[in-house]
User: Fold 3-dehydroquinate synthase from Thermochromatium tepidum ATCC 43061.
Amino acid sequence: MRTLTVELGARSYPIHIGSALLGDVELYRPHLRGPQVMIVTNETVAPLYLGPVKQALGSHQVREVILPDGEVYKTLEVWSRIFDALLAERFARDCTLIALGGGVIGDMTGFAAACYQRGVDFIQVPTTLLAQVDSSVGGKTGLNHPAGKNMIGAFHQPRAVIADTDTLNTLPERELSSGLAEVLKYGFIRDAAFLDWLESHLSKLRSRDPEALAYAIWRSCEIKSQLVAEDERESGSRALLNLGHTFGHAIETGVGYGEWLHGEAVGAGICLAAALSARLGWLTESEVERTHRLIAGAGLPTRRPPQLAPERMLELMAVDKKVLAGHLRLVLLKRLGEAVVTSDFDHDALAHVLA
Amino acid sequence: MRTLTVELGARSYPIHIGSALLGDVELYRPHLRGPQVMIVTNETVAPLYLGPVKQALGSHQVREVILPDGEVYKTLEVWSRIFDALLAERFARDCTLIALGGGVIGDMTGFAAACYQRGVDFIQVPTTLLAQVDSSVGGKTGLNHPAGKNMIGAFHQPRAVIADTDTLNTLPERELSSGLAEVLKYGFIRDAAFLDWLESHLSKLRSRDPEALAYAIWRSCEIKSQLVAEDERESGSRALLNLGHTFGHAIETGVGYGEWLHGEAVGAGICLAAALSARLGWLTESEVERTHRLIAGAGLPTRRPPQLAPERMLELMAVDKKVLAGHLRLVLLKRLGEAVVTSDFDHDALAHVLA
Assistant:
């Protein structure tokens, strides 16, 4: 087991990465303030992993909420069921919520923990590669609104993250690829050497080689936790984590939540960001081609959905929350391994790239 | 105009108290980061005060959301309309929400500001005495759940509070009395001299003497802001502010939200707390009688609703969020002017007081 600490002063927390962690009570125990534990999970994950987690926590008062599975359910209405369960069981302020599932479960559970009685503890047990390398680190929680993704939410740090690599064996291939989009992202924005390593290990990662996966998760979490520790409130370097995401969110909203997976949209978004970076003279054509090869090699799309017109993409990007006072800022690439936040591109260049 | 600063480091904010403040653009301007302003108000307040506030902010992009009036509407469903409006107008992260109304509007607007894009600025313009002395100070925001009041919420500090005493001229008498419950509370928990002053000025306050009201608001805010500054996260002295509230919340829930006003329930709750304090030997019978005289003199009930059985009260108090890990803690009075948080009473004493 590898353990990484996200340094946030009094709210620092450990990320444990490895095999057979899910059922290890010792990883939970130091982080449970009171006797009451509410596991929030979904209909897909519950039959696979709810049992072992409940068994590990057998000496506590453990209850569960099982939500429907999918990004389309990341709504206020579904979210409110967590409060119904907490209040039906009279959970007190010293209770702990456990998010057992992917990014949607993590976001909804974390946001419920942020708001229940104005804030209780939670532990993340991410069961997808995407959640292990992204959603479970950084304290972002939230819900979607019909008019935009993650528009309602809070910053709320978990007490611990338990990333059990065994859970990836039950992950569908499309979801594994979706997670690889975020893994590749860390290489693109911060670490050219990691990008090289990923390039030579893509087939191992896709065949779920445990050693390769553990290293990729660990390095991804390390890069993200460094960025988050530098800048917890997203005023500076943390914004780099949005590489591909402004494009990606527009794609997800445009085709309807759940049609494209988050990582698929991010993969295509990274390719669009690379193309725009090339138009600014920052990337060469061969670097753009390498970007496409890496994204395609992870099993991800490299272009926007053909049914989504460029005009509609532009419109959707304008409501993305990265728009600061009406001015569109994007994360682009100075080179492969170094991202910057910029609004230093003209509308025509953006429109051209989308077309 | 009197101005009080709530000292919270980087999140310190001013409370302006006085006449004719509502339409003074200079009080808003220093706190508006971007051009977009969303005024959240209700159907009762909008016809009275929305016009002047909009006029003062004429140079900004001002929009409004008008919600139905009343505690029964402090729900997730009604709350979500604020997001609908913000997103329909494409409000960015540097927008400002203005809460124009009583405590319900303040709580819902503040919580929406806490959650919109994971946190935007808001300004409180409280138009009831209760909101001016209570809800607008301390950063507590939230919503009710059918199973309990304020169970869903966040801590989120306003950028400024503008308490215009002129708005109290349109306040119904029952609501004025409800506000006086909280004013009296500050005397009971922290300041015997203020309690003496209130005793001799109750009739002036009820006839809306502007001088008396301004002093009462100012001193109430000062006591509350001291307690909040001491203890922003409610681990210690801030809990004293809950005098009468655990009883009061049980009353409000038991009779149905909106039947009793918040301050009416708190008034009766203070009398119940005094009675329990007397059973512990802390208050004399004549102090209990004085408490009843003060509460009744403010136009407030001194007893629980007769239709609410003691057993049901106890049950409802057990889900109140002040219950820590199943153990009921109450704010009681060591003397008139000094409150303590304690669980040092037996169940029989509590049951006797409720009967």
Remarks:
- Chain B has two domains: 2-169, 173-354.
- DSSP finds 13 helices and eleven strands in chain B.
- The mean pLDDT of chain B is 92.
- The two ends of chain B are 46 Å apart (CA to CA).
